[in-house]
Amino acid sequence: MTSAPRTARGARTRAALLEAAEHVFAELGYADASVVRITERAGVAQGTFYLYFDSKLDLFDELVDDLNRRVRRAMSEASAAAPDRLSAERAGFRAFFAFTAEHPALYRIIRAAEFVSPRALHRHYDRIVEGYAEGLAEAQRHGEVRPDLDPDVAAWALMGIGELVGMRWVLWERDAEGGVPDHVLDQVALLVDGAIGRRTAPATTREENGS
Amino acid sequence: MTSAPRTARGARTRAALLEAAEHVFAELGYADASVVRITERAGVAQGTFYLYFDSKLDLFDELVDDLNRRVRRAMSEASAAAPDRLSAERAGFRAFFAFTAEHPALYRIIRAAEFVSPRALHRHYDRIVEGYAEGLAEAQRHGEVRPDLDPDVAAWALMGIGELVGMRWVLWERDAEGGVPDHVLDQVALLVDGAIGRRTAPATTREENGS
Amino acid sequence: MTSAPRTARGARTRAALLEAAEHVFAELGYADASVVRITERAGVAQGTFYLYFDSKLDLFDELVDDLNRRVRRAMSEASAAAPDRLSAERAGFRAFFAFTAEHPALYRIIRAAEFVSPRALHRHYDRIVEGYAEGLAEAQRHGEVRPDLDPDVAAWALMGIGELVGMRWVLWERDAEGGVPDHVLDQVALLVDGAIGRRTAPATTREENGS
Amino acid sequence: MTSAPRTARGARTRAALLEAAEHVFAELGYADASVVRITERAGVAQGTFYLYFDSKLDLFDELVDDLNRRVRRAMSEASAAAPDRLSAERAGFRAFFAFTAEHPALYRIIRAAEFVSPRALHRHYDRIVEGYAEGLAEAQRHGEVRPDLDPDVAAWALMGIGELVGMRWVLWERDAEGGVPDHVLDQVALLVDGAIGRRTAPATTREENGS
DNA sequence: AATGAATGAGAGTTCATTCAT
DNA sequence: TATGAATGAACTCTCATTCAT
């Protein structure tokens, strides 16, 4: 069993290991990210690793939790400042993409977690969905989101949009500034607004118009 | 370099290996799925593996391509029979979820592919998106999909919805029949319809009405 | 799980590993006898070890059982040829000492087994005692061993004599021929004969004589 | 080089380490008894260990010597109070078994010492034998032990009896009070008495009587 | 006197791959 | 076509010991 560092020096070493791990995991994935590589990058001996983490998996879990905390903060801060729901969504997505660009580790590590640490993976998504769904329910009460929507399902769906669009336009082909192109962000906003926003006329009206 | 099997027996052995691999990969992930386990499950000797595949990675790529072909067929068959765009979407998603339930391998393997074989991963998503985006563009021309939508971005976004909803309601907590609950499917249809469907009145109209 | 070798070559390799292990264990003890050293001595690669044994401990257990079988055979063959109980004991002890001299592994490995594999240790002693106690009981029925003796306790006690005398005069300070000196063997025979042999007169007689 | 503790506090720490070591060695054996575990049990930091002992081996040697002193005292005190040789033997064995029950460490550590510290092992047995053999020689001069016995060989043999009987009935299957069952102790006394006690008539007499 | 961080060699074990049969 | 023996590099993790504080 490892324990929290008791000295400043220990705290520094532990932080160095976490930081190194983020990069190595992001670059190589869990399986290929050996403890040797992590300790080498952190500039400490192999044995030192086990002073602060019980195992490679232990470190992995901690890292996921850490990144989860950070991405949620980034998103909520961004959307909190927005005047209305639509711009809040837009800001939230932009923040998510920006975070992904800056910490590709998040994205890569999460997807790798399926077999590595299902519990960490669960925790990660559940936490994000929880906040997201709450926000949607609140917006429903304010009449900004269509009332017939199940906030939980919607939250998972929207998170999915962020995940794949992020993969495609941040991880695979990012633009110069490291975020998604404006055009893509606009489209996402359009889609999200259409998906959850209130409609002026009931669906039946459309049919009438169409005839 | 391996070559295609020259006899019926060889073809059978090769198929057995592919089948075994699908299960073993789905259960353990790429990293932990050893060649030994695959050959054991296929009932052949270790050396036999290299008669049909150059490497573990080679087999993996082939498997991804194979699954990709199958999932696309399942989805396109399902949506082809639908009378209009909305029910086509619903049918397509239902087919995707059903396929995921029956072949969790697809889902698991794909997500694991990030570090294993980025090229296979790319190919997989690109192929799905390609067909999907074409379908959306076609529907746009028929006036069934809002004209201001970029079919490419939309395709990625919708795929994301399928991916996370599938993870949540098929992989993590499937209902008795192995598919997603009707309620969830309804919600997904609602979201998708809202996201890509034509609106009766342009967004600005809403503002006008509101005043 | 390992399986029995299926070819002659495999059988040879396996035997080589066992033989190497006997020497390495005898020389270094279980803890310091690394798999590397064993495989080096056997002239095979490290990985080959695990083709035939599940673990270092597995090999250890097998070795103990193997040696146990051999030492019991050596002893029983030696004592079977003896005309009476006394010479049978003498022959049995001599055989035990000779075996110990030739296979110091037995002695060393057994004593080390206390923490390594208690089960193997138990098995070893139990098997020896079993045969020994049976022989004593049989001799009791023939009137060659005092009737008030519990063969089981006696067997453990005599085994103890062999163990420590063997340690002292075979392992620590063996004579030129590699066995215990005749003088020591004589003394052991004397002790054993006294311990288990019938007495002419009951103990009380001695007291009477003494007065 | 470590030096003797200069303060009362130091003496206490040292004693705590020794005590902890006895338990940890007894439980895990030398190889698996890590310095970490010993210091943890003693409630001191790892580094502190090397203030009092040069190495793990150093501590081991000291522990063996310490236990040796204690077991010899226990045995000699017990047998000193006995009125005659026979009861002295019985008392000595009883004391040995009792000590073994109370300090399984002695037994376990000694057997483990074969590869760890042959010198400590030698010293241990030699010291016990020395006293034992002297006692036997003295008893011979008083006519209580048969004169044709080599006290040295006899001492090793008797020690062997104690060792294996102790292993079987104290370590493996002790009775409620933690000693060997009375029956076993009786049998041991019988064996020992027969082995070293004077006989009324020479062995040849038995033959004559038999005719 | 005591601490706890740091070391780095070495342990057992796994595994993709090769090769002789 | 198929086998199973063999390889050896790489992995995670442990541990006795040192050292700065």
UniProtKB/TrEMBL annotation, chains A, B, C, D:
Its signal peptide is: none
Q: Which organism was this protein described from?
A: Cnuibacter physcomitrellae
Residues crossing the lipid bilayer are: none
A GO BP entry is: negative regulation of DNA-templated transcription
| Highest taxon of the lineage | Bacteria
- A GO MF label: DNA-binding transcription factor activity
Q: Which PROSITE patterns match?
A: HTH_TETR_1, HTH_TETR_2
UniProt protein name: TetR family transcriptional regulator
Check the record and name the Pfam families matching this protein: TetR_N (PF00440)
Record key words, sorted: DNA-binding, Transcription, Transcription regulation
Q: What is the lineage of its organism?
A: Bacteria, Bacillati, Actinomycetota, Actinomycetes, Micrococcales
